[in-house]
Protein: Glycosyltransferase
Organism: Prauserella salsuginis
Amino acid sequence: MSGEATVTTEATAGSLLQAHTPASGRLLAQRGLFEGPSAVVSKDLYLEVVAGVASRDRETVTLEPSAKATGNTYFGRFPASYWQRWTAVRSVTVEAIVSGSGKLMVRASDVAGEARTVAAEAMTDVVQRTVTLEAKLDKFVDGGGLWLDLETDAMERLTVSQVRWTVDAPEEIRPTAVTICTMNRADDCLSNLRTLADSLPALETLDAIYVADQGNDTVDSRDGFADVAAALGDKLKYIKQPNLGGAGGFTRGLYEVAGQAAAEHANVLFMDDDVLLEPDIVIRLTAFSNKAANPMIVGGQMLNLLHPNQLHVGAEYAQLNALQPGVPVPHSPETADLLGVDRRGKKVRQERRLDAGYNGWWSCLIPSEVVQKVGYPMPFFFQWDDAEYSYRARAAGFPTVTLPGAGVWHADFHWKDWDEWHRYFNLRNSIITAALHSPFDLNLLSRVLMAQVVRYLLGMQYGLTATLIKAVEDFLEGPEILHDGGVAAMKEIREIRGQYPETKRHDPTNVPGIPSNNIIINNTAPRPSMQRAVLLKRIVNRALGKHRFNLGAVPADEAHWWHIALFKTAVVTDASQEGVRVRSYDKERMVDLGKRAVQVVSRLRKEGHAVQAQYKRAMPELTSRENWKRLYEL
């Protein structure tokens, strides 16, 4: 395959996806790995050496005498609770190639994290022996996992490699097509393609990789693209298309796969272009989907890229009527240090099984049955497309599972600033999603929006207030606002925000109009105990133009409304820690935006239910194959 882009069409795609008939009668559920895909990742996320000395590489570990190592780690655990709850599998087999002397043990935990041994085998002076251990999946409904422990006594040395967790295979193994949406992140995308290419021998169920390139700095412009394309061969389908946002990029993979005659039972795995990829996630999600008792969306977890030991969240849901995504479900670990210990002194492990509301599209597998029943994603361009799709699927009988141990590293969310153009899509699409899948309590919704407006205005975030107003106005325009997939809205919101100086980021050593020596940190007081009284006081002082401080610098984590409202000008650190923003009091803008916000929220209260009905009527057409074909200009 050359470095030129090749476009998959309905006419040419039929030869790609083929169901596999397993030769061995076993399905690979996950590999036992001992080292990550990058040097920035700790090996202890895969296998932890708890005593003595051991050397670890990707697929082999060697224990020296008197050593112990445990696979009770994030990637080392087999999520037994999820397999027992959601699949018909009732036992799992662990296979390994072993040389030397020592002992292998399959260990298990329960919902409280208490460990027990379920299978073990000791060996002496073996050479390349295949060791097989079996564990039942029968005591894990509420929680718990399985893992492999290794140990040697004095004078023993043990090498273990090619660890495989397998289950009984279905009659036919449904294949998976990965689809990557990318825009101007050519190097990141190429790196992940290279990772997939290097892992192809293990990725037996990966039949296709679709890359929807929506940028002007394209992946195929890179020197290494031709080599990667050659390595992937016919599996790679590289598509250039207009920028239709994340929704348009990911949906392209669904569109291409669903157009194939052999795709009645297939999976499409969404994957972000900028993740640090653990390719075993393809194996883990595909196997789980293949053995699920009923079709379901299967998502991977997110690890924080800037802090690779941290799990973003165990599972999450959305409070639809409050417009709040990413809420951890009860008992979910959140920003958890996977190499640390909890308050009880126990290692941080997700023992309890959690039910997710939806899964982010950093890695999320969607079976073809879901698409056949509920259609394609909404043409949201960006934000909330993942949540909307999962809640629509759940209403049709397809739950979402977030599978522990199936993870990729993605940029930490709390290092992204909220005051950006994409906040428009977050707000607009959250309101649409609430209209489609919640009771749509307009009194509650109005209070949520006005509370945001008050906080933004007190914090001198006038551009962010304008962004909110535009989002609500466009929701009230009805489904027609989604006709072009969001292209016009993206351009318009950027133009609107460009009128507000505080939306621009500056170098901290070169803040326009403010001498550097005058920018002194002014720390916040604790959160007020009487917030309503303080809020009223801040509003009155803002209306009167009274300020306690003329100028000050405020750290990003202290930029609370009650603190920023004390300043005439505040130099606020951007959440990205890459610069600062200058927020300056502007009474005229504050009053004007406040009035406009009240007006548009009043309109929402009056017109909301009528507009809700419009979106519900339009949803079948908006999510149809024909609509996406029109958007793709095919």
Notes: Residues 20 and 528 are 62 Å apart (CA to CA).
